[in-house]
Amino acid sequence: SASLRLGCQHAVFLLTAYFSLQVIYARRKYSVPPPATTGPPDFERVFRAQANCSEYFPLFVITLWIAGLFSSQALSVFLGLLYLCGRYQYFHGYSKSAQGRLAPLYFSAKVQWVLIGVGGLGVLCCMSRLYLGLDLLSSLLLVLGFSQLD
């Protein structure tokens, strides 16, 4: 339901706030006053991890909504939670070492691409039904040998 997507968006908000607080703590710990964005490597990794996550969250929220509106809401929320878990791991991995960001980065990127695909397929099916009178999903299921979903 829409409340599930909203819950996922609240998780994005909370995670963004958490990452921002980690930058504040790192500024204090490494004596890097605002507006400086450079300092010891340990500070710069925390700062970049937060910035990278913030840069990708708008794309994530948009694809989450598109997938939820035009496809399966449960699947979009599941993928959304996987993405957020990946981003959390990314942040902490990057904070420790530059190499520590790679596995979670690849994981969350794959989840994001699946979310984009689910949303894109949903939009395509909706538009073909609306403008062409063709139910692509039913046609695909028929071709695959599934005559009905009961």
UniProtKB/TrEMBL annotation:
Record's catalysed reaction(s): leukotriene C4 = leukotriene A4 + glutathione; (13S,14S)-epoxy-(4Z,7Z,9E,11E,16Z,19Z)-docosahexaenoate + glutathione = (13R)-S-glutathionyl-(14S)-hydroxy-(4Z,7Z,9E,11E,16Z,19Z)-docosahexaenoate
InterPro entries listed in its UniProt record: 5_LipOase_AP, FLAP/GST2/LTC4S_CS, MAPEG, MAPEG-like_dom_sf, Membr-assoc_MAPEG
One Gene Ontology cellular component annotation held by this UniProt entry: endoplasmic reticulum membrane
Family matches, as Pfam families: MAPEG
Pathway: Lipid metabolism; leukotriene C4 biosynthesis
Transmembrane segment boundaries: 7-25, 56-84, 105-124
Keywords, in A-Z order: Endoplasmic reticulum, Leukotriene biosynthesis, Lyase, Membrane, Nucleus, Phosphoprotein, Transferase, Transmembrane, Transmembrane helix
Protein name per Swiss-Prot or TrEMBL: Leukotriene C4 synthase
Organism: Astyanax mexicanus (Blind cave fish)
